[in-house]
Amino acid sequence: MRAVIRVIPRARQNKISTDENGVLRVHTTAAPADGDANAAVIKMLAGYFNVPKTSIKIIRGQSARDKVIEF
Q: The whole model's pTM is what?
């Protein structure tokens, strides 16, 4: 399964929400440097969807806010 997400790094708190178009918005307190935000996003999505972290991959958008992930 693939999904489009929007990442908001350096947010005040870690949370997952949806916008008016149904796109998942992942707010993370991690900075985007050195892949810290990507690692935090994968960890948060794993907990949200109750799947192992190793089953989530970022297909597109490693350095962008808009990402395509695959479960």
A: 0.90
